Amino acid sequence: QVQLVESGGGLVQPGGSLRLSCAASGIGFPILSMGWYRQAPGKQRELVALRTASGRTSYGNSVKGRFTVSRDSAKNTVSLQMNNLNAEDTAVYYCTLRGDHDVGYHDYWGQGTQVTVSS
Questions:
Q1: Is residue 110 over pLDDT 90?
Q2: Which of 39, 74, 82, 100 is most buried, by the most CB atoms less than 10 A from its CB?
Q3: Mean per-residue pLDDT for 100-115?
């Protein structure tokens, strides 16, 4: 059974930094990508950052230049370094993993970790 466990969320002041981590277990298939989405109250879930197995990265427009996604393929972990945080970054952050199965791909999700940016 695939499990994604996030850690590192919390309260941070505007301009501060935070690092999120996600560890995947129960992986018995190729991983196509790992990354992060977020959802703020009353808003749709949106892309934060993804890193593919080949090393290609993609970022949401609002976080480009401030956030960095990294991945340890050997440990099946993905991290998100978030710098210069602002109130608009407040959201629940979800780790996601896309697995390659015989019949196609499947997306897995963690339970989410709260990030609150406030003074």
A1: yes
A2: 82
A3: 94
pLDDT greater than 90 at residue 102? no
In 44-81, which positions are buried (b, 16+ CB within 10 angstroms) versus exposed (e)? Answer: eeebbbbbeeeeeeebeeebeeebbbebeeeebbbbbe
Joined tokens for residue 87: 């109130």
Among the listed residues 77, 93, 99, 80, the one whose alpha carbon sits nearest the alpha carbon of residue 33: 99
Query: How distant, in Å, are the alpha carbons of 13, 74, 85 from that of 109?
Result: 27, 20, 24
Residue 4: which pLDDT band, with cuts at 50, 70 and 90? very high
Between the CA of residue 23 and those of 42, 47, 61, 85, 95, what are the distances in Å? 28, 19, 25, 23, 9
CA dist 25 and 37 (Å) reads: 19
